[in-house]
Specification:
The chain is α+β, with helices and mostly antiparallel strands.
């Protein structure tokens, strides 16, 4: 089941998957509590949160109009390759398009995740760059 969640609900998975188990405080993002930011989670039948994402209002120079940025997308290691992230991202895109009337979504994609985003038709917006302590990334995005 996919539902809206609170910022603090995202922290354990962000820490585990995106920050190599760092303290939860290090998994917080400044924009987490901004009124226009939203968080989605995918829960299994037992009520365990298996996949998360955050979307924050933020424009990108490559696009015109209203934009959002995808942040902190993570799937529990035991739940990978089950299509959860795809379902969650598609739900976020639907909300952005149909409810918030957003024109595009963009993000910094980890190089290891590029094939996932390519399959969903996201386009490259940059060459590869390194985020210190996290690793190689490329900017990607999609107009709606």
């Amino acid at each position: 089941m996919i539902k809206f969640i609170q910022a603090e609900d995202t922290l354990p998975l962000r820490s585990l998957v995106l920050r190599n188990g760092a303290p939860l405080a290090e998994a917080k993002m400044e924009e987490d509590l901004t009124a226009t930011t939203f968080h989605l989670g995918y829960f299994n039948e037992a009520g365990e949160l298996l996949c998360i994402l955050t979307c924050q209002q933020q424009t990108h120079a490559a696009f015109e109009g209203a934009g959002y940025r995808l942040r902190g997308m993570a799937t529990h290691p035991d739940a990978r390759q089950q299509g959860l992230a795809k379902q969650l991202l598609l739900a976020a895109i639907q909300h952005l398009k149909e409810v918030l009337n957003v024109d595009y979504l963009w993000f910094n994609a980890r190089v290891v995740a590029l094939p996932f985003y390519e399959k969903l038709q996201f386009e490259y917006l940059s060459t590869e760059f390194d985020i210190p302590g996290i690793g190689p990334h490329r900017e990607m995005g999609m107009r709606f």
